[in-house]
Amino acid sequence: MKGHLTTAAPAGSFLPDVRSVRATIGGWAQLSVVQYFVAEAAVIQAWAGPEPYSRATGYISDLGAVSCGVYEDRAVCSPLHLLMNASFVVQGLGLVLGALFLTAGLLYVAARPGMPARRFRDAPNTPAPVRVLTVPWLLSVAVRVLTGVAGVGTVVVGLVPEDLGSPWHFAGALMFFIGGGFTLILLAVLWFRQTPVSWFLGACGLVCLGALIAGGITRMHVPQPGTLERLMGYPVTIGLAAAGLVIAQRVRRHRRELKARGVLGSGPRTLSR
């Protein structure tokens, strides 16, 4: 990863390279997960079960069931199941692209553009100079990994509908809930005091993980299992989309500032690792 500095910076610091379109693609790819809500609404409207579909009592995965029939005591029939499953896959691919394209350095400073990211710091009380990774850098790397896990899980959910009877569907859903929930918590910590959005991301992460714990304890035997499941999934989709919007907007603003100063498009000036 390359960076550009016009002034001196602590060792191990650099400005992430926003001249590449990968940063913009990554942010908008993550924001694209909101298409899920449009697809879900359309699939619900086409529901053909004996009873109208209810978000309060119906599971999200029922909308992607391939066959009409009774599944775990629930009568399901979703004519637009292909649309729902395609939406899951697109949502997952958007998260995977975000994890691949949004570098740790960019995530580090996404909420404070123009500030250098610091990858290393000097370890104190050592006989010889030792450099160790900084905590924010480690958080940034963890965010990328967990976002990728959530994305892969969503792709699995779309490719393996619930009525196929495969444990991979359940595993994919857990990957999305757990990976997405912890991603939001870590992003909230990473961006704390840098943007008010950090509070929103933290709240979304806590709601997701809290609902997941409640679902595990009750085994989803609650009056409104659909509501409980959506408290696991909706905050992840909304929170990650909000994070993608912050990143896309900040990268776009920073690129415009660099272009106005005549920096964007010029060669590297000073590189500090």
Summarize the entry for a quick read.
The protein is mainly α and 273 residues long. Helix content is 57%, strand content 6%. A hairpin with a 2-residue loop joins strand 2 (69-71) and strand 3 (74-76).
Give the arrangement of secondary structure elements.
Blueprint: E1 13-14, H1 22-31, H2 35-45, E2 69-71, E3 74-76, H3 81-101, H4 104-109, E4 117-118, E5 120-122, E6 131-133, H5 135-159, H6 167-190, H7 197-218, H8 225-260
Antiparallel strand pairs: 1-4, 2-3, 5-6
Helix pairs in contact: 1-3, 1-8, 2-3, 3-5, 5-6, 6-7, 6-8, 7-8
Question: Can you tell me about this structure?
Answer:
This protein is mainly alpha-helical and 273 residues long. Helix content is 57%, strand content 6%. The chain contains 8 helices and 6 strands. It has helices spanning 22-31, 35-45, 81-101, 104-109, 135-159, 167-190, 197-218, 225-260; strands spanning 13-14, 69-71, 74-76, 117-118, 120-122, 131-133. The strands form 3 sheets. The protein has a two-stranded antiparallel ribbon. A hairpin with a 2-residue loop joins strand 2 (69-71) and strand 3 (74-76). Helix 6 (167-190) packs across helix 8 and helix 7 (197-218) packs antiparallel against helix 8 (225-260).
